[in-house]
Amino acid sequence: MKKEIALGAASALLIVLIWHGVNILPLLFFFFLLGSMYYFFIIKNGPENTRFNILEKESVSVQVDFSSIGGQKTAKKELLEALDFVRHPERVARMGIRPLKGILLVGPPGTGKTLLAKAAATYTDSVFLAASGSEFIEMYAGVGAQRVRQIFSKARSMAARNKKKSAIIFIDEIEILGGSRGSHTSHHEYDQTLNQLLVEMDGITEDSNVRILLIGATNRADMLDKALLRPGRFDRIVPVELPDKEDREEILGLYVANKPLADDVELGRLAGETFGFSGAHLESLANEAAILAMREGCEKICQRHFSEAIDKVIMGEKLERKPVKEEMRRIAVHEIGHAVISEIINPGSVSAVTTTPRGKALGYTRQSPQNDSYLYTKDYLNGQIAVLLAGAAAEEIVFGSRSTGAAGDYKQAVDIARQLIACGMSSLGVVSVENLPGDLLHKELQKLIVEQEEKVKKLLGENRILINRLAENLLAEEKIGGDILRLLMKEEGLVA
Known about the structure:
Elements: H1 2-19, H2 25-43, E1 55-56, H3 73-87, H4 89-94, E2 102-106, H5 113-124, E3 127-132, H6 143-161, E4 166-172, H7 174-177, H8 189-202, E5 211-218, H9 226-229, E6 234-239, H10 245-255, H11 267-272, H12 279-295, H13 303-315, H14 325-345, E7 350-354, E8 364-367, H15 378-399, H16 407-422, H17 438-462, H18 464-477, E9 479-481, H19 482-492
Parallel strand pairs: 2-5, 2-6, 3-4, 4-5
Antiparallel strand pairs: 1-3, 7-8, 7-9
């Protein structure tokens, strides 16, 4: 009403000015500038703009349930138990159990935290609202707190509108919204937003008409405020870890279900070669393999397409640039050095060796552990240092000099040596790496590196002819699989 009165008064004023012969163009220009500033700084970006990207369940075209999520048995078990409190409130009330208010999913990127949240909404027949933690934060004071109130209010109204008794609010990257108070010194907008979230979570009651469950996801739980993690707010912290070999095979099975596979495809073998892959990596692997098969005009996806796709997911696309012949031979010798030492120390560990440039690497030796390992012994770590040093050592034995191509290998070797010292597996015993004098730490690191380097040089020196022959074979083929490499080494009579 006020806007209509102001607009009418302004129009009347302009008519009067025109009637008296006043030039109103400067005045119109002035009002235009004021209106533009009001629109861009107040309406569009200011505190009154409370619209932000809330993903509603109705907008999700594909329903996600727990059966369509591979692996994550422990996470699903924890989550299902918590969701039963939402699904069966009468049973919970009978046992005198306080309903859970929040569940925090913690794990590396790409492990399926968002999928688990969507499956939770399907399992409990709840309305589903999702937003990113960064969407709550603005430079204007009070906007974040207002948006927190808005999403909780919208959850209740959506549930009532859809005749649902429960609602699930999912906040991804919640560490942006729920970071420790006082860590942001620029302004208090972060703290106000977190305070409002705490208030809203405290306001979740069991006798409410709509039961609300907050699910947060983060890969930086260490950044979250302690008040957010205490019981009564986030009651359950559910780890969502990288899948093991069995889970990777199950996930691959889900992602290739709609793809035509050749008879030679072995999902178990692929699962073994993808240690450290997340669910997102495995989805990308299946997709890239299908793209490679289509690019070649094949009707079915073969094992070699998956093998090529693994390299692409890890290292990136093949590069067009080709090193000169002398550099190619040095690269081949370097990679064969890695592969030979890897096979001597841990037979059957090499999956493939290639001189194809990918990403920042001019060549690549891919190792595949026979079993997933989460604890490493001193012998294993020393062996990894030896494998990393073997590339440069092979160059020195064959060409009499090293190259800058070993810079990344040396960095990784030093990191592993530092891990040996930190875990008390060096001659220093149990020490604090942070409190070690710099010269002493340097000497111990150098000692560990030199010790493995001498062993590697001795082994490669005894097999110099083998290295040259394998390098020539690699140059001709560009890529050698692990099985072929082991066959060639056996034919040449490897001296171990």
